[in-house]
């Protein structure tokens, strides 16, 4: 059974940084394409970024490009979402997700991911 556990959320001010962590148990994190999504109150869950299993390359939504970075620590079986220059519109519950897809495509759709964490709240005040 694969489990994902996010942590690192909190309340910050605009312009601050946060790093979210997603610990993967059940299989090695390097076996998965890992995605990050977020959901603001009253809105659909949206794609934030992805790190591919095959090449380790990353791709981001336009709204976070240049500010957010996804990385992976295989020794800790953990994926990170480094968030810089945070804005109030980044306020949401952030979720990590895992897919067994081993290709090089960037998976942006929720349905591509079989495993999800419980989410961690990020609140950015202005």
SSE topology sketch:
Elements: E1 3-7, E2 10-13, E3 18-25, E4 33-39, E5 46-51, E6 58-60, E7 68-73, E8 78-83, E9 92-99, E10 115-116, E11 120-125
Parallel strand pairs: 2-11
Antiparallel strand pairs: 1-3, 3-8, 4-5, 4-9, 5-6, 7-8, 9-10, 9-11
Written overview of the protein:
With about 130 residues, the chain is mainly beta. About 0% of the residues lie in helices and about 50% in strands. The strands form two sheets. Strands 2, 4, 5, 6, 9, 10 and 11 form a seven-stranded mixed sheet that branches. A four-stranded antiparallel sheet has the order 1-3-8-7, with no helix packed on it. A hairpin with a 4-residue loop joins β7 (about 70-75) and β8 (about 80-85).
How do the SSEs run, as a string of H and E?
EEEEEEEEEEE
The total count of helices amounts to 0
Query: What oligomeric state best describes the polypeptide chains here?
Result: single chain
Helical residue percent? under 10%
Distance between the termini: 40 Å
Question: Which consecutive residue ranges, at least 5 long each, have pLDDT under 50?
Answer: none
Cα shape: globular
Taking all Cα atoms into account, the compactness measure Rg is 13 Å
Count of distinct strands: 11
Largest sheet composition:
7 strands, mixed
Specify the structural class. mainly beta
User: Which strand-content bin applies to the residues?
Assistant: over 45%
Q: Roughly what is the average pLDDT, rounded to an integer?
A: 94
